[in-house]
Amino acid sequence: MTLRVHNTMTGKMEEFVPLNGNKVRMYVCGINTYDDSHMGHAKAAVTFDVIRRHLERKGYEVRYVVNFTDIEDHCIERMRELGITLKELADKYIAEYFTDMGRLGVRKADTYPIASEHMQEMIEAIKILIDKGFAYEADGDVYFDVENVAEFGKLSHQKKEDMIAGARIAADEKKQNPLDFTLWKAKKPGEPFWKSPWSEGRPGWHIECSVMSMKYLGETFDVHGGGTELIFPHHENEIMQSEAISGKAFVKYWLHGGLMNVDDEKMSKSLGNFFTIKDVLTHYDPLVVRFFLLNTHYRKPIDFTDTALDEAGQALARLQNTLDNVMATLNGADETLEDGFEAKAQEALGNFDKAMDEDFNTREAIAGIFEFAREVNRYLEGQQLSKKSLEAIVSAFKEFDTSLTIFKFEKSTDIDTELLAPLVEILIDIRQKAREQKNFELADEIRDKLKDHGIILEDAVDGVKWKMA
To answer: What is the DSSP letter of 134?
Structure first.
């Protein structure tokens, strides 16, 4: 089956053909290391985790690189606020990032380059740009000269004159053109700095990603990913400076995910409308959060609400219940029965692959799983399925999960649920009364405490249901 992806550069769906056989080199912009990761970061990380997993499932050998930006204004400001070094700040929030993403089922990248550890390579890259006439120095700062670039705005599809008309330039600005961007900035009082031929200072944001991606993936690689907010100026500027350095095409396929919004506005720390992954995971199962993020096509924005997460939890529970019922029915299933349901499992898997191969359309893929689950449920209610068919169903769910990672295939067996049931029902009644009295803090505490002990409550239309995690 042919894999097609939407390439931001061309604005079209294209057949995915790696530059070197079955080897795929992929770079995704990571976080700035000054605070806990929020749900916008979760969306990006889960998106490209699934893209990587599906590429591997199709037989590609993926080298995956995600960077950490530890040198920028927010990091410096937070370093001062906490009274620690940049390295201590980065170490703290990189560790927190790994914890949060690990809980969401995000596999670690092959390499996590950190900006401050690649200073010499950045200085060398800037030297090359100056020597080639693509950059100029002004009072210790270095700027990229956009006038020397023949193809400007080819990723964002904007015209240079339109961008200049909308730009602002101060009277004392050192830039020759409002669109020129910083490659190196001279230090300000109290800022961390590194020595360079131009001044004691630090690199600009854009050159960091160019240098780190090319160091670990080569001058031209297959996939560069990130959120749509990075298309301009970050990724546009990356392309200009990288291709000026190498004289080669920088990236073959550009993939961009939609934003995580709150009330139709981008979730961000600067706007103060963000929800950290930690906070969200105190109220919701990590698999529910992952399902919530995947139940929309990655190029589409998602509006973050508790209602949407609650609905995601109920929807995932329906799929998990189908899988649980099939696995429970496997014990003692008839090995001689021939019912032909294996063919339906194969058809469902084919439909799943068809959706995922059309620009990693998890929304359509999940819709297909629901249709398959409904058919499985009808058979389980109306007739006996053979052991061979039940095994085919479980196998199909495992294949779905190779790309998505949203299901549980093992159930705890060391608790007697019959003895436990009356106690859980009492707690559910107490929780319900607390909600009626608008004591939501107590209601949430009961739910969270039960979850800590492996008991998941599911608020459904017909009442509260519970199950072991």
So the answer is: S
pLDDT at residue number 379: 87
Q: Which helix (H) or strand (E) holds 352?
A: helix 341-356
- Look at residue 262 and tell me whether its pLDDT is greater than 80: yes
Distances (CA, A) of 136 to 72, 187, 207, 279, 459: 21, 17, 14, 46, 62
DSSP string, 282-349: TTS-HHHHHHHHHSS-TTS-EE--HHHHHHHHHHHHHHHHHHHHHHHHHTT--SS----HHHHHHHHH
Are the C-beta atoms of residues 95 and 101 closer than 8 Å to each other?
no
Query: Is CATH 2.40.50.90 the right assignment for the domain spanning 4-280?
Result: no
The predicted structure's pLDDT at residue 171: 41
The segment(s) of the chain belonging to CATH 1.20.120.640 are 306-404
Q: Please, which residues have CB within 8 angstroms of residue 251's CB and are 6 or more apart in sequence?
A: 9, 27, 220, 221, 222, 223, 224, 239
Residues 6+ apart with CB under 8 A from 374: none
Give the domain 306-404 fold. Answer: Four Helix Bundle (Hemerythrin (Met), subunit A) (1.20.120)
